Amino acid sequence: MTDLFSIEGKVALVTGGSRGIGLMIARGYVEAGARVYISSRKHAACEEVAAELSKVGTCIAAPADLSREAEAVRLAGEIAGREPALHILVNNAGANWAAPLSEYSDAAWDKVLALNVKAVFHLTRALLPQLEKAARPGDPARVVNIGSIDGLHVPALETYAYSASKAAVHHLTRVLARQLAPRGITVNAVAPGPFESKMMAATLDHFRDAIIGSCPMGRIGEPEDMVGVAIYLASRAGAYVTGAVIPVDGGIATTV
Description:
Blueprint: E1 11-15, H1 20-31, E2 35-39, H2 43-53, E3 58-61, H3 69-82, E4 88-91, H4 106-126, H5 128-134, E5 141-146, H6 160-180, E6 185-192, H7 198-214, H8 223-234, E7 245-248
Parallel strand pairs: 1-2, 1-4, 2-3, 4-5, 5-6, 6-7
Helix pairs in contact: 1-8, 3-4, 4-6
C-alpha cells in the first residue's frame, strides 16, 4: 500500500508553488520524498518558500512569469538543463478578476486567459520531451492541471474570465489526455472548491459563513484534502486515470 501511493524520488514542477493551493501541493510532494521545483512570478517569494521547504526535503526555486510564452519555454529549458526527466507537472499558476458585467474589461480577459489557459498549454507543450523521458510502462508521466468548481457550475460572483478560463482548462485537460496517452503521459484536472489561499482571502472574509453553509460537508478545504488527490494522481495508484476532472469541494458542485 505504501508503494501504491509513493512518489519518492520523482521530479516535479509545481507552478504557482509559492502560495495557496500550489504551496499545499509542493509541500506535500516534498514531504513525500519528491524532488520539487516551484515556480512563481515573484522571485523573492519563490526563493523564500523553496528555502523553507528544503528543511524537510528537496525544493528548488525556478521563478518565471508564465503569462508569457517565452518564459514558459525558458523555464522548460531550465528544467531540462537540470534534470534528465520530469515525472510530474502541476499547472497551478493562475489569476482571478471580478467586476460587474458593464465594467469587465478586455485587460481582465487578456490577463486571466493568458495565465490560466495559455500558460497551461505553452508549458505542457514545452516540457513534453522531459515528460516523455520520465514515462515507464505502468508508470506514465503525469500532468495535473488545477481548474476550479467555478468551471463546473455558475459562481455567485461576477468572475467572467476566471470561470470561463477554468472551464477551458477542464476541456483542454481532456483534449491533451487523448493526445498524450499514447506517449506515456496522463493528463488530469483537479477542480478545487474553497480553500484558504490569497486568491480566496477576500471572498472568505466576506462570505465564509455562506460558503460553509452551501457545502454539504460543512467546511472549507484543508491542505491535506488537496495533497491527497495530488499524490493519488502522481502515484501508481492513479496510473490508469487520464482525462478526469476531479472536484475537491466537499460536495458543493453537486448542489447546483
